[in-house]
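Table S2 (continued). Query chain:
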Amino acid sequence: MGCCVSTSSRSTCSSKSNGDMVSPSCLEIGFCGQKRTRRTFSDHVISLHHLPSLPSRIFTNGKSRGSCIFTQQGRKGINQDAMIVWEDFMSEDMIFCGVFDGHGPHGHLVARKVRDALPIKLLSFLHSCESKRNGSGKTCFKGNVKPDSGDSEQDCSTEDKLNSTWREAFMKAYKAMDKELRSHPNLDCFCSGSTAVTIVKQGSNLFMGYIGDSRAIMGSKDSNDSMVAIQLTVDLKPDLPREAERIKRCKGRVFALQDEPEVPRVWLPFDDAPGLAMARAFGDFCLKEYGVISIPEFSHRLLTDRDQFIVLASDGVWDVLSNEEVVEIVSSAPTRSSAARILVDSAAREWKLKYPTSKMDDCAVVCLFLDGKMDSESDYEEQGFSSATIQSNHSGNPIESDDGQKSEPSLQRNFTVRSSEENETNGAISVDAEDGTSSADDQNWSGLEGVTRVNSLVQLPRFSEERPNS
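Corresponding output:
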């Protein structure tokens, strides 16, 4: 079992040039029989370097039309979490959200690479699939499948086709992403990797693909109009029966360390390393022959009027807060635009209370409000943000490049133990106000220092990519 191989398809659709405002893609799944002005995928997104200029895509702390996102660096070094909200993803009623939690020496670069490249691969494969179906004379799929329509057999068939298209696109996109990481010339993913939890909302349809232990939940109202938490994804840990069976069948080992019995890990057959705390991930090629895979779990859900919001977060949040607590925090936030930040602040406080001797993990949160509404700009500024937040690198977000050549923000800390008073006055991680940056080499990746439950890896293998003879 190893890295999957796939060939990305390219857009071949034609574009019109009448100057009308259009959504950033020609991928028109769900708009059958409607003539729309189209812009080709290749016209709109020429390369990864143009992504930051897309107005409907945010990846630093801030808000969009119907969401807010926030990340905070933990105590282990460089922030290895990444997040994204991309509105008008394929059409005006479509939005892509994702959270990616990196691990290993280059995990921060892997997470950012996946954040930038995976949505584009998904777009490409969706367009390719739709082009093939239209070319074969089959009807395309409507975006909103209603369960109570008149012809139930036809509706079922339509929903099956819709699921098939999206499942295939997610599978191929994840496969191509892992292939690209394996062959990347400047990014060593042998002992580094990333989780991914990604969703696409199109009308009342919610499509989800995920690997690793980042999680998505939904806040919904029950019959008594009380908020309830609904977990949308499964944490793909190595002790899940089917995951453990696959890993052991591939000669990998699964066990927990004696001083952290609640954290099952994946180990090489011939070395007590690396101790990966998840069963599926991008990268981590030292384990790809031993049962760790990058094939995503896929699911489709029909949203109802009772569904209020979706929260995507890295395990830095889920390690200390339950699903119910997260829903309570988000639903009771004074403003929607502050919900992600308040959730991260709450997680940071819980880390200090529950694990005072452990290094707090990085936290990343995406809050998507399903009615598409957000606060006014004045409410947003009252919560300590400004309109420039969306365009700026705020509160520790890296100034990034694909190969990691640009600089990283640094923590204001002297690598000594803080007093309790300092902990109270430094509730949030601060960035050097004068410089704001330091060399990435200066920020040693310290995730392997000590053994705590927050480390995704325990120890690097004592070999390179060469495997011993067995």
